Amino acid sequence: MKKLAITLSVAAASLLSVGGALMVPTAAQAQRGVFVEVPPPPPRHERIPPPRRGYVWAPGHYEWRGGRHVWIRGMYVRARPGYAYRPPEWRERDGRWEYRRGEWDRDRDGVPNRYDRRPNNPNRY
What is the residue range of the signal peptide feature (predicted)? Predict the structure, then answer.
């Protein structure tokens, strides 16, 4: 009986160690941007509706979904006082295209707050 308990505990420990090696990345480990080899098509022309108080226009853009570029229509997003909205963009880097989603920037320096050493620097703007 004691030998069976030891065998089961060793088996369970080895399963746990294998399970740790096979872990799938979680959202916390997600990449900062999407990199693809295919450049996005030219932006589409879209009619911007009249301004809405308390909202900011987020222009239409292409996202990479299902192995291809998909157009996402522009829309109004609720404004955040003290922040500037940076729309999504595609940038070419080393022959590949990087997609960065739209973000809010507190000090309007162009660096997203989560990557900015001093996101509330009073000497900027």
Answer: 1-30
Neighbours of 25 (CB within 10 A): 8
Residues 6+ apart with CB under 8 A from 69: 38, 40, 41, 62, 63
Whether 122 has a pLDDT exceeding 50, the answer reads: yes
How far is Cα 57 from Cα 85, in angstroms, rounded to an integer?
Answer: 9
Element (H, E) at 53: none
Mean pLDDT of 67-81: 94
The answer to whether the predicted template modeling score (pTM) of the entire model surpasses 0.85 is: no
Contacting residues for 86 by C-beta, under 8 A, at least 6 apart: 102, 103, 104, 105, 110, 112
Residues 41-57 have pLDDT tens digits of 999 999 999 999 999 99
CA distance 103 to 88: 8
Q: How confident is the model at residue 83 (pLDDT cuts 50, 70, 90)?
A: confident
Query: What are the residue boundaries of the structural domains of the chain, listed by start?
Result: 34-105
Distance CA 83, CA 87 (A): 13
